Amino acid sequence: MGFRFRSYWTEFWTACLWFLGHIPSHSFRKTLLRIAGVKIGRKSFIHLGCRVYEPTNIAIGEGTIIGDHATLDGRDRLTIGDHVDIASEVMIFNASRDIHTEDFKLKLAPVAIGNHVFIGPRAIILPGVTVGDGAIIAAGAVVTKDVPSKTLVGGVPARKIKDRGVEKLNYRLGRARLFQ
Predict the structure, then answer these.
(1) Mean pLDDT rounded to a whole number for the chain
(2) Does the keyword section mention Hydrolase (predicted)?
(3) What is the mean pLDDT of residues 67-79?
(4) Cis peptide leading into 148, omega within 30 of 0?
């Protein structure tokens, strides 16, 4: 009985979080996500339609922008650094199925994204990946392995394209529009 109740509670909470993602006010949405357990830094923005699973395992740094309809999976630890730009429809997962077991067991692995990272639209980051400071992930890339600092990666699966060629990163991302 306890497992069934927990399952229903999880489904109910997931539906509530989906609803929260569609409230057209950054500050209200951010406040409600904080109440749900997401740790969100100052001057960070989460756009409309962002899906959040297991919010208590998610930490977002200062000045970070999460694009519309992004997916943040908190079934294991998800850490997003400061001044990170996550574009529209990016999916970050930290759980998958083990295809090499008879019971198709769930595998969990934390995901860490460094500071000053840009993740292009519709990129997918899979469980266990660490993205270094200043890295750029091209649109549509599927990241299956760690990305070194200040490296541009792209493709399926993502591979190194080139080094970023910048010594020091100190930019701040701009403010998001009010109803976005």
Answers:
(1) 87
(2) no
(3) 94
(4) no
